[in-house]
Amino acid sequence: MRPLLALLLLACSSSAPPRDTTSGQALSPRPTLDLRALAANPAGHEWLDFRPNVKKLIFAGSAETEHVAILWYTVPDGRVGLHRHTRTESVYVIDGRQSDGKGTYAKGTVYFNPPGSGHELSDSSGLFLLAYAAPPDFANTSALVEYTPVRLDTTDPALWSAAAPAALDSGVRTLDIPLDRSGGMSGRLIELGATDRYQFAGTYLLVVEGTCQLPEGALAEQSLVVASGVKPELFELAGGPCRLLGVSF
User: Fold this and answer.
1) What does the DSSP 8-state code read for residue 29?
2) What does pLDDT average to over the chain?
3) What is the rounded distance in angstroms from the CA atom of residue 240 to the CA atom of residue 227?
4) Fold exhibited by the domain 154-248
5) Taking the domains of the chain in order of start, what are their residue ranges?
6) d(CA 219, CA 109)
7) What is the pTM assigned to this prediction?
């Protein structure tokens, strides 16, 4: 068994209490984004300059705090200098690839860097869904610690087969991603059948396969819906089949 899959199975069978999916506040419909359309026409959005040849589109939070954003390398071989993450960082590769000292992350990969980690990005291109529990620290890189990112390939069927049913009377399958609890972020993989219903309290949901029904409407593959702020909100899911990545601060 692959080490990461074993780790995920261990996390599912641990005695730690499950994340509460019934808490949170149901709010008015939230904006959604078609990531495929974004990749086809990134210039059609208003971007902030993050670093030379790297732009950022912020959906929740602000540049100086925890936030959810899209990162765009506007040139091939894009780079970001060495920086430290005081809390958890999450990156999902929408299109292209991202590289650091731990390897290269291809399209469909999501990885989480734990508190105290740090990296220098190079040989990167394309667009990335980014979530910070705290903004990167470019000044205190001497405090970096050795770490191993939690890396998942959302296109791997074996990843989803590790998920456990959410309840005996439901076909919903969920898998909590084993993240450092001190990092201020949690992640969950969710799989729904055609007639399933599910509540997720979180900051964003990304449909990685299939089509899901939300109050915002039908969300097709590579659709993103983000809470109005960085605090968890209640997402009401119905129908499928679909597979989703959910992240919560």
Assistant:
1) P
2) 87
3) 21
4) Jelly Rolls (2.60.120)
5) 33-153, 154-248
6) 20
7) 0.87
Buried b (16+ CB within 10 A) or exposed e, 118-157: bbebeebbbbbbbbbbbbbeeeeeeebeebebbebbbeee
Find tokens 């529990």 and name the residue. Answer: 133
- Cβ atoms of 97 and 126 closer than 8 Å: yes
> Do the domains at 33-153 and 154-248 have one common CATH topology?
yes
pLDDT of 25 above 90: no
CB 129 within 8 A of CB 95: no
**Exposure b/e, 36-51, CB count within 10 A at least 16 = b:** eebbeebeeeebeebb
- Alpha carbon distance 22, 17 (integer Å): 14
* Neighbour count for residue 85 (Cβ, 10 Å): 23
Class of domain 33-153: mainly beta
pLDDT per residue as tens digits for the range 184-230: 999 999 999 999 999 999 999 999 999 999 988 899 999 999 998 88
Residues 6+ apart with CB under 8 A from 146: none
Give the CA distances from residue 7 to residues 2, 65, 177, in Å, rounded to whole numbers and listed in that order: 9, 30, 9
**Element holding 106 (H helix, E strand):** strand 103-106
Which 3 state secondary structure label does DSSP give 221? coil
| Number of neighbouring beta carbons within 10 Å of residue 106 | 12
Q: Which residues lie closer than 8 Å to 149 by C-beta, 6 or more apart? A: 102, 111, 112, 113, 114, 117
Q: In the numeric block, which tokens belong to residue 6?
A: 């074993």
